[in-house]
């Protein structure tokens, strides 16, 4: 593997993330952030040049006023108030921020919010109705105790749903490979594999 | 069968689902940085780019001019803050911005606060510093460090354990091992980022921060900000992993609180992953010199363990695992010595199994070496030296089922099918190695308080300011109440992680289940006593006048000794009470009389294993299979197996998960994790999750956990030994031993990487 846009060497982990997610999101190079800052400075009450961004998250419209440098992750958490999606690094290295955009898993920290205008974003909160029946993957995570602290769990579940949908859940080995973009420091990995296998079973 | 829910053996609790499982799979569990706060400003830290020197100039003009910036807190702004003292409360004596001296890489120099996170980040990046830089000595072997004996200077070690005349016994031994071992710097890296959110209201401060000790944080924050305890509330409902990193307070918290007070607005600072490596503590690197002497039949006659641990220039910190290694087997003569090496680093602190993980590694590797020197099965060598008494003071173990762990584990692993000759097992291109080692962790227990309320509708509320860091403490505390009060777990709600609740100890040292469950048990028994009293004292009703001492509570029904019964709702209804609520304080035997008062002031006083009349430890036997590619030397770990005896298991599901996660943590510690410093600058070069390797799913093979039945009520009323830090001990040695078995190459420095296996051996 050669170099990513940001010039940083791509690790096996980011490679796996990218391969698994077929994502088009690119790392945000420091230069791009600064350039964005220069372009927009001085045009709003506190000068950060807010832009209105319409996001559609979990079938609901959000009209947000954002610093254009805001990542989709920060927009979801800090502005839409949906804190189920987690930040574990902000650099595409942990998978905690995994959401679906137009049905594909992506790392929400690796894409600007405004790049997702008009797309359908699904977060962990959108997988099932509050208080209602759980998504089979959520239930499988409970059945197999596929978490401990639970911090990586929303990202794991969003990845797992996509992993099955992509047709990458045919064997334990394949699941391990395609779930390797999501770190779990509590190391619930064997239980995560079992949960994905259970949820994938009817379609397998 | 679902492997996540092992069938309970005797003295083991049902594998009930976690009480917070639904919250965790739906994203509704709120971690500190998830808590919605109105009118929030965002803080970003500015940290030093040198490891030693003085800050001669910090240029903040560009930062101040950045649109959206509200305030910058730096040197000169913290006069109202008091410097911390080093200890359990604060991991360092380094003041938050009290001096312009730099003691370590990435030391906090300022906090930039802005309207948005993006503006704060931009402004922080624009700060430049000039330093009077000095060469830094940051590793155990760096010239310019300072070495001292640890005993008497560190909290964890009063005296180096010793027994008999080691030198004489060692010289007389016909078979001897003499070797050096090393373990690296490691960084906890919970997936949740460190954060502080400070909210002031009428002189009251609320801090939302992930912590293993809300009460500890409260008193330390109050001290540093010159506030009364009653003015500070710390809230940490769910914690996204911790592994020791969130035990003591770090300087950031007071700085953020100060910024929020100055600004008159709540401030949230989420620390970047890279800054988490330098503004939080870490596991210190260690070096060990082990000498073992034995007779030809494998009886160990002499054991010496000398160790060196790195600490900061400011604080004398050491974990001193010799307290465990010198008691692990029935050695003859024992000598030990721990030294600390003061270097230009931040102060280390606890990381999962702080003493045991780095100290058991050299011992359990040396035992493997001794077994090979003797031509003995390494498992048999351990059983040969198994003992029911520890050798330092000759105290008995409160219970010890190490032998049973080895026997059951070896059978399940098919250990005996191994060809003992190194480099003898192979499948295609893969060299196969088996290794084993002992897992051990002391049983700690501390004072804890809990409040339990049984309502007339049969619901139960348990309150105790412990911390759900992933251990399942909410679930097992709820399970304890459900069992004692005869209600289903679904009827129990558990509140934790808030200084408005009764205090619980720091969630460290694997003491929580033992301590908190003992307090919950006591409160439940008080509730039962009042309920039985009400049933008996009723003027009429099926239990009127019955003997309370023979009453029990089961499935929502109070039963008398003669079989008469009354639903508990009726008992409460007839008594006119809306609920029965009881507060209980559990103080373990051996704790100081003021342990509970100290706990209210944020100090956990742990009663440690070696302080008891019978020392108490949980034990386990771990087995590892490695496969090493004959040409590329890629190391894979297809199989981990551990058999553990840890007293009462409250819930086999959560216990298995902790032990399983622990073994993978141990594997990672042996094979992947190392915080690397550039020797020229003494700065960390892999401060992110791409280059600081932690295992991914594909690095993990099958992990089997066996939990032996063990009953030991002498340790605490709950009979719990604690197992959050048991599973990761010994895995490193079992793995290194397996690598030797696969290749014939003995590796004594962790982590083991494939480059360590390239060339120079005849195994392939
Ligand atoms: S927060 Fe996006 S990958 Fe870590
Ligand atoms: S459950 Fe804790 S990080 Fe995965």
Describe the overall structure.
The complex is a heterodimer of chains A (204) and B (764). Chain A has 204 residues and is of the alpha+beta class. Chain A has 2 domains: 50-126, Roll (Ubiquitin-like (UB roll)); 128-204, [2Fe-2S]-binding domain (DNA polymerase, domain 1), CATH 1.10.150.120. Chain A contains 7 helices and 5 strands. Chain A has a 5-stranded mixed sheet with strand order 2-1-5-3-4, with helices on both faces. In chain A, helix 4 packs across helix 7 and helix 5 (153-165) packs across helix 7. Chain A is globular and about 50 Å long. Chain B is an alpha+beta fold. Chain B has 3 domains: 32-134 and 195-270, Aldehyde Oxidoreductase, domain 3 (Alpha-Beta Complex), CATH 3.90.1170.50; 166-174 and 282-444 and 611-757, 2-Layer Sandwich (Aldehyde Oxidoreductase, domain 4), CATH 3.30.365.10; 446-606, Aldehyde oxidase/xanthine dehydrogenase, molybdopterin binding domain (Aldehyde Oxidoreductase, domain 4). Helices cover 24% and strands 25% of the residues of chain B. Chain B has 17 helices and 31 strands. In chain B, the strands form 8 sheets. In chain B, strands 3-5-1-12-9-10-11 form a 7-stranded mixed sheet, with helices on both faces. Chain B has a 5-stranded mixed sheet with strand order 7-15-14-13-8, with helices on both faces. In chain B, strand 9 (195-201) and strand 10 form a beta hairpin. The mean pLDDT of chain B is 96. At the A-B interface, helix 1, helix 2, helix 3, helix 4 and helix 5 of A face helix 1, helix 3 and helix 16 of B. The complex binds FE2/S2 (inorganic) cluster (2 copies).
Q: What gyration radius of chain A follows from the Cα positions, in whole Å?
A: 17 Å
Number of helical segments with 4 or more residues of chain B: 17
CATH topology of the largest domain in chain B: Aldehyde Oxidoreductase, domain 4
Low-confidence stretches of chain A: 1-47
Strand order of the largest sheet of chain B: 3-5-1-12-9-10-11
The CATH superfamily of the largest domain in chain B bears the name: Aldehyde oxidase/xanthine dehydrogenase, molybdopterin binding domain
Number of extended strands of chain A: 5
Mean pLDDT across residues of chain B = 96
Helix proportion of chain A = 25-40%
Strand order of the largest sheet of chain A: 2-1-5-3-4
Unreliable residue stretches of chain B: none
3D shape of chain B? globular
Biggest interface, which chains? A-B, 79 and 73 residues
CATH superfamily annotation of the largest domain in chain A: Beta-grasp domain
Q: What name does CATH use for the topology of the largest domain in chain A? A: Ubiquitin-like (UB roll)
Beta content of chain B comes to 15-25%
Oligomer: heterodimer
> What summary fits the major beta sheet of chain B?
7 strands, mixed
- Percent of residues in helices of chain B comes to 10-25%
